[in-house]
Amino acid sequence: MSVCQVAAGTPVRLGLVISWLAYTVVALTGVMMIWGLITAAADKPPGKAQLLFAAFVELVVVVQTLIASANLVLGFRPAEFATTIGYLIGIVILIPVAWFWANSERTRFSGVVLAVAALAVLGMTLRLLVLWTPPVLR
Q1: Beta-bridge partners for 12
Q2: Distance in angstroms (rounded) separating the CA atoms of residues 53 and 31
Q3: Which of 5, 12, 28, 95 could cysteine-pair with 58, CB 3.0–4.6 Å?
């Protein structure tokens, strides 16, 4: 776990979100993306298990965002504050939008919609990891 100085000079421990939760999100969204592409290749709409998995991934993403938001409120300032806020909002919005789209339009392309949302969340989570790491530790 690393330590970074905040504006007031008090140390803030980093790593809780970054180390295990962010990589969990990356792994889960990777599985979600592959599952969506397999569903599309099989010419089938996403089933209940796939939609429940997407909902579970969203739950993990929300937990990650809440912890990151709490760290921001407590004074931690990442390399690019506005970009971090944008990514934290974006990752929370994408999966529910894709979930509702996939649930309302029951075609094989619904799996692609879930896969694209998962890829976007995966990419934004990796970018959040870079933003969250202080320049001194990179």
Answers
A1: 4
A2: 10
A3: 95
